[in-house]
């Protein structure tokens, strides 16, 4: 899909408040749902994936099973809300041996297992919203001793809420991120907003409003729990 596209900086494949957030995705639902809802914490539209069985309710990109993403950017970043239920996602990559490898992360297993074509690993999410940072190049090298070439497919299973899924050429600090890649938290108590220190995030308000009479909610940057994996963090079982 993106193989012949110039790739640098950021490449987004899902944005929950876009007009068609699942335009390039396919979805499978059994005993569950995939729908857009308004999240109470951020007061904005997010994509919710819920199901009684994580393996039968999911979204996958590209929508066409015969196509591949062809994304060469090595960092996968997902802004995900922890629903305190079973959750898993999977990424398929191509390495320099022309072998397709899959990385599957889930919050219901405790050890990392490396098999010839799939690496499964544990994942721990904090309460609320999390930013998952996945260094695909590092994982491919450490798990298989090969070099990452490109990402072929991304599949996200129940149970979670999604704000955005994107790739980047490197990890960016909060200050470097474009505004649309940050998560905002509504703050209705304006007295509380005025007391925020610069360390807690910047305050944003409507430029055209009359002070004290604006009905637009002020917002502050939501502090995300950032999950960055390293293969060194795991006890690895090879088979």
Question: What is the overall number of helices?
Answer: 2
Amount of helix = under 10%
Could you say what the CATH architecture of the largest domain is? Sandwich
In the CATH hierarchy, what is the class of the largest domain?
Mainly Beta
Largest sheet geometry: 8 strands, mixed
Instruction: Identify the overall geometry.
Output: globular
Q: Indicate the radius of gyration in whole angstroms.
A: 19 Å
- The total beta strand count reads 18
Q: Proportion of β residues?
A: 35-45%
Arithmetic mean pLDDT: 82
Strand order of the largest sheet: 2-5-12-7-8-10-9-18
Written as H for each helix and E for each strand, in order along the chain, the element string is EEEEEEEEEEEHEEEHEEEE
Low-confidence runs (pLDDT<50, min 5 residues)?
A: 187-223
Distance between the termini: 33 Å
The number of domains: 2
- According to CATH, the fold-level topology of the largest domain is Jelly Rolls
Structural class: mainly beta
């Amino acid at each position: 899909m993106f193989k012949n596209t110039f790739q640098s900086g950021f490449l987004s494949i899902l944005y929950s408040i876009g007009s068609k957030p699942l335009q390039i995705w396919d979805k499978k639902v059994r005993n569950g749902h995939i729908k857009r809802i308004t999240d109470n914490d951020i007061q904005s539209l997010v994509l919710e994936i819920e199901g009684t069985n994580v393996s039968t309710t999911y979204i996958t990109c590209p929508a066409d099973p015969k196509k591949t993403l062809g994304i060469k950017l090595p960092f996968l970043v997902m802004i995900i809300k922890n629903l305190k239920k079973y959750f898993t996602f999977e990424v398929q990559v191509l390495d320099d041996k022309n072998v397709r490898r899959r990385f599957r992360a889930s919050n219901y297993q405790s050890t990392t297992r490396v098999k010839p074509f799939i690496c499964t690993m544990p994942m721990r999410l904090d309460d609320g919203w999390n930013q998952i940072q996945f260094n695909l190049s590092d994982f491919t090298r450490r798990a298989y001793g090969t070099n990452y070439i490109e990402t072929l497919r991304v599949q996200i299973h129940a149970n979670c809420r999604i704000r955005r899924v994107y790739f980047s050429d490197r990890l960016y600090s909060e200050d470097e991120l474009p505004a649309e890649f940050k998560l905002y938290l509504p703050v209705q108590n304006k007295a509380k907003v005025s007391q925020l220190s610069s360390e807690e995030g910047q305050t944003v308000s409507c430029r055209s409003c009359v002070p004290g009479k604006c009905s637009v909610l002020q917002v502050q940057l939501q502090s995300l729990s950032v999950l960055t994996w390293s293969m060194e963090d795991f006890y690895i079982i090879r088979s």
